[in-house]
Every structure is written in C-alpha cells, then in structure tokens.
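Re: the request from the purification team.
They wanted to know what the chain is likely to look like in 3D before they choose a buffer screen. I agreed to run a prediction and write the result into the notebook, where they can find it.
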Amino acid sequence: MVIVARWFRRSARPLPWREPGTTPWGVLLSEIMAQQTPVARVAPMWLEWIERWPTATSLADASPADIVRAWGKLGYPRRALNLHAAATRIRDEFGGVVPSDVGALESLPGIGSYTARAVAAFAFGQRVPVVDTNIRRVLARAVLGIAEPEPPRVKADLDLMESVLPADPAESVGVNAGVMELGAVFCNARTPNCGDCPIAEHCAWALAGFPANAGRTRTPQAKYEGSVRQARGAILALARANSRVTASDISVAVPDSSKRDRALEGLLSDGLLVNVRRGFELPT
C-alpha cells in the first residue's frame, strides 16, 4: 500500500485542513464536520469556523445556541452540540490542548473509534489504523477481492487496516490518508473508476475479474423528502432565525402532526431545543 501513499502525496485534493500548519484542533473540527457530509460542503464551513473559533477553548467559551446557529444546514446538528461538549472537556480537562492519545480522544463526547484514530494519525503523525466507509470498501476490493465489504466489525476492520500499514509512522499516515482518498475519488460504491486507479494492477477484485461477490446487500437509504429528518430541519431552521418559536409557528412549518411531534420530541431529547414559557429556544 506504500504506492497509495506516494499517489496521495502527488494527487490529494486541496482541502483547507490539509494545509501545512493546521492545528490538531483544526483536524478534529474537520473530522467532526465531515461525518456523513461531503467535503465540498464542509470546506467553506470549516474555514468560517476555524477563523471564528481557532481553538477548542474559544469554541467552548461560545454558547451552545451560537454553535447550533453557526452549524446551519450542515446536517445532523447533534454533532454541533457534541463538538461544543468535546471542546469544553478539552478546555477544562486538557488545558485547551487536544489530546494525542486514542483513549483520551475516545473519551470526548461525540468522538468514536474512527475520529479518535484519524486525529491521532493526521494531527499527531501516529501509526494507528484508521477505518471509515471508504477505507473499508477499498480494503474489501483490493485486499479481500469482494465487491462490497461485510457489515462493520470494529476489531476485524482495524486489524485488516493494521496489516497493510508500513512500519514507518510517516508512511503509515500517508497510507491511511491515501486509501481513504482512493475510496472517495476512484473506488466509489456505485461506479468505481478502475481504469485510472493507481493500484488497479494490484487489486484482488480487479485481478479476479470484478466478481459480483458482495459481502452484504446494500440497504437503500431512506428518503429525506417528507421524512422526520426533514421536519427536524424545518423546526431547527425556525429556531435559528428566531429567539423563540411557538407551537403555532412549528405547526405552520410542519403541517403533518405525526412527523411534527416526533421531530420536536427528538430535538428536545437531543438537547437541540429547550422548552421555555410559551415556546421553544435553542440551548443557552
């Protein structure tokens, strides 16, 4: 997989958090923002946030309401509150310095196995396996020779990525980043561009003739239009634009009472809204 690291150094997309001088906080911020969100949408938001809140402490000192408003339409807004909670822990327990230890990173709110290892690798140059959806797909095809990966298994997935990492920490970081980039740019789920792939001649799936031997059946993603997720977004958009919203305001924005009730209940449960006299507000 060293060839992937070399390819990445030549051809990586010019994302702002990949620029020299990006701090560990900048890396952590990019990883949280990019969860289930295309990097094209993340890049301009990341630039705004890193200018407004250049350190974990500066973001921790902001109010949760400011953070949720600034999150805008990036999606899955619970991430914004988790990010604020993580920044607060970094300020209060780590002296404002993002920890480099995987275990310490995993102890932060909203930081799972992938994000902790991504920060350890990309911010601190550590030799740790990083596994996301793109990496799992590349490993399934290039190493295991199957069209789609098996259901996620954290230990097995990490062990497989560990097995292809070079011993040198700097090279291992390049392999982690390169395999992830390969999955995003060439080895995508539906229309892989195998003709331009830099490891096509080494790929077990390609060498086997691209068999349709998927490790799992893909589950269709639920439609957003008309969903409770869409109702949540509509209610949250109202709350961002107004200091307080009433039940009547919400009824106009989401006429479907069933979806409205479920969306409102979820937002309150997640802490994205709080119940106040005569309405609802963003958390303070």
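For the purification team: The chain has a mean pLDDT of 92.
Please add any questions underneath this entry.
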